[in-house]
Amino acid sequence: MNSPVNVPAPVSVFFDGSCPLCQREVRMYQKIPSTVPIQWVDVSSNLQDNTTGRSCAELMSRFHVRTAEGTVLSGARAFVALWLLFPSWRWLGRIGSLPLMPTILEVAYRGFLLIRPGIQWVFRKIYPDPKPGK
User: Is 131 a domain residue?
Assistant: First the structure.
C-alpha cells in the first residue's frame, strides 16, 4: 500500500533559524529519536508552512509548537510539549507538566527572552558565520 504524498508531520516546531543559539538547540533535538515525526520550520527563512495564524514576527519572537491535534503552543508550554515527544527527555516534560510548573517555566522563559539578544551577540562572536566561498 502506498503512503500518501505530502502528508504533514503530526508535530511542527517553529523556530528562529537566524538565532545561533536556537540553531544549536534545534540541531540537538533533531539528533534525538522522537515518538512522532517532527517538521522543523525555520521561520526566519521559510514560512511555507505558516498555518499557525501568527505573524512571522510573533513566530520569530518565541518558540512555537503545533501539536498533532493542531493546537499551537508557545514559550514554556511549547518546550514541555516537545520534551514529551522524546523518550529520553520525557521525564523533563512530565516535571514541566506538574501543577504550577508551566507558569514557573514561562516566567523563566520570559526572563530568558530579555537576555536572549545578549546571548545571541556572544554566540555570534564565538561562532561567527562562515564567509561565503571560504
Answer: no
Question: Domain limits at 48?
Answer: 11-126
Cα 64 from Cα 7, distance rounded (Å):
20
Angle between helices 90-97 and 76-83 (to 10 degrees): 140
Give the residue among 51, 36, 131, 13 at the shortest CA–CA distance from 90: 36
Phi, psi of 80 (to 5 degrees): -60, -45
H-run or E-run covering 15: strand 11-15
User: pLDDT (tens digit, 9 = 90+) per residue, 46-97?
Assistant: 665 566 778 778 888 899 999 999 999 999 999 999 999 999 999 999 999 9
Distances (CA, A) of 134 to 19, 72, 126, 127, 129: 21, 40, 18, 15, 11
Q: What is the spatial distance between Cα 131 and Cα 16, in angstroms, rounded to a whole number? A: 20
> How many domains, in total, are found in the chain?
1
Residue 100 has a CB neighbour count (10 Å cut-off) of 7
